[in-house]
Structures are given as C-alpha cells and as structure tokens.
Amino acid sequence: MPELDETDIKLLKLLGNDSTLTMKELAARVNLSPSPVFERVKRLEGNGYIKKYIALIDSEKLNQGLIIFCNIRLKQHDKSIGHDFVSDVLQLKEVTECYNISGDYDFLLKVYARNMKHYQDFVFNKLGSVKSIGSTHSTFVMCENKNSYNINL
Amino acid sequence: MPELDETDIKLLKLLGNDSTLTMKELAARVNLSPSPVFERVKRLEGNGYIKKYIALIDSEKLNQGLIIFCNIRLKQHDKSIGHDFVSDVLQLKEVTECYNISGDYDFLLKVYARNMKHYQDFVFNKLGSVKSIGSTHSTFVMCENKNSYNINL
DNA sequence: CTTGAAAAATGGAGGGT
DNA sequence: ACCCTCCATTTTTCAAG
C-alpha cells in the first residue's frame, strides 16, 4: 500500500469536491504539469483511494424532498435474520443508506420520500411486509445544513 | 421548470452512478446520438437537476474508518443558539453531514473518525467547546451495508 | 518529472424529420 | 421540438527522454 504525499491528498480533496476539473486545471492547482497529475490520479483510482465518480442529483427537484432517518429494531438477533433484513431492505428504492448500528436499535436507514403520505405508505406497506422487523422509530429531517458526501481532508 | 422525460431520468440515473460515462456511451444507452445527449445533460446541469460532479473517496483507506451518528440536544431553542451551533459545528472537519431533526434531539451529525480515541477527543475537546450544546448521544456504525449517495430513480 | 504527439471526447454549426 | 452528421477544438492518454 503506497503512501500518499501532500499532492495526492490535495488531488483527492479537489476531485472530492469537483470531479469535472481537467488534468490541466488540477495541474495548475498543485503546481505540476498535466502528465504527472494524470499518473497520480490513475494511481489513486487503481489503488482504490478514489472509489468512483458520480453526479449528485437534486432530490428536491425530483420530488423526493422529504428525508427520514428510520431506526429499526429486529425481532431477533441471529445472523440469518439480519442478513434477510438487509437484502429485503436494500431492494426498496426509498432507502439510499443502510447502517448496522450500536445502541437501542439495530439498523439505521436513510430514506427519501416525496411527502408524508409517501413515507406513511413506505412504513406501512413496504417496511410492514419485511418479516424480520420488530419495531421502527422515524426521525424527520427539517433542514439539511450540510452534506459533503466525502470525508474532509 | 421544464419537465423531464424518460430519457432525462435515465441520464440522471446513469450519471448518478457513474459520471465518467462519455456522451457517446450515454448516447448508446439511451439510443440517441451524442449531440442531443450533450444538450440534455447541459440542460440538466443548467436547471440544477445535476448539482455537481464529485469523486467518492474511500474513507477507510484514509484512516477515517469509524463512522458515528451523533445526536445533539441544544441548551435552548431560540434561533440564534441554533444558528451559532450550526456555524460552529460545520467548522469541524470530522463532521460531514448535519441535519436539523425532529424528536428528542435537535441535530444529527455524521462524523468520521480515525478510531475511538480520535472520536473521544472529538466529543470532549471539539464538541465540548461548542457552548450551545446541551447533551449528546452517539450511535456507532458497525457496518455500512449501503450508501448510494443519490436518490434511487 | 518534462515534452510532445496520437487518440478520444467535447461542444457547436448547419440541416433534416 | 427534437434529432442527426460533421468538424474544429480541447482534453486525455501515453510514449520517450
């Protein structure tokens, strides 16, 4: 596992905020020419430091403006129930994130819904038919103050 | 606000998963030639459906493998205290997301730390010096089962 | 790392249905 | 409105030094 120097970190930071920067633009910001920057970026991709490049879609513009953190407690805690839950819940298009967590609940889901009615339908009809779920607790997002999508380097 | 057709949605979906796709590759997937695809993508960018393009960085490879959801209750609930809290907490590099939420707590933070010791330091020394905070409750992520970063179209 | 050049993609012009 | 083909420009990509 090769070490990263200052320049690599800076490149990750730049691309983590804006991946449309060209090699030329990146080069200018790290005081190099495009070629070594190209090689560094390819190395960062190849070694998995950069996982992928994506476009961020505006969820509000697509009528998915309601964000809910949904805490879930399983009925039982054996491995197979947990596995069933994860595979069931990842099928649901409203669920964009799923974490196995410590504490009172077993899982935390981030859910996007059009509105309250849609979320109600999600809880009763979709989560309601996932057998492994014991109970749920929903926390509604009133305002997203920040989401940087990446660690802050 | 112009409506989106099937093709636009498909383009958003494709770019939301992989923004390295070229106009040519996108064109092939939606059965068009590169030019109209180019125009559509520029329109989606211009109208804000696509907010930005970013590289996703592997947090584990950068020694930020511990994810914590930190619930925070403010001391008081006036607007200025809330504003102070947000501006203070967004300065902290460990905090990548911040939500104003309903329920027992006022805010939910997503925090990345190197390890438990680092998180302990974050809670005691960094959050500890934010005056507006009343109490906190940390939920530790044991496994990230899914994070799609975008709504599922 | 630099230079430099081939291959590929972008971004428009102009025209067709 | 929407699409196409063609082409100049820019960028990417990869030699060789």
Automatic annotation (TrEMBL), chains A, B:
What the entry lists under InterPro entries is as follows: ArsR-like_HTH, AsnC-type_HTH_dom, Dimeric_a/b-barrel, Tscrpt_reg_AsnC-like, Tscrpt_reg_AsnC/Lrp_C, Tscrpt_reg_HTH_AsnC-type_CS, WH-like_DNA-bd_sf, WH_DNA-bd_sf
Per UniProt, the keywords (alphabetical) are:
DNA-binding, Transcription, Transcription regulation
* Positions of the HTH asnC-type domain: 4-67
Q: Which domain of life is it from?
A: Bacteria
Q: Which SUPFAM superfamilies does this chain map to?
A: Dimeric alpha+beta barrel, Winged helix' DNA-binding domain
Q: Name one Pfam family in it.
A: HTH_24
Name the PANTHER family for this protein.
Answer: LEUCINE-RESPONSIVE REGULATORY PROTEIN, TRANSCRIPTIONAL REGULATOR AZLB
Know the name of this protein? Lrp/AsnC family transcriptional regulator
- The organism is Mucilaginibacter antarcticus
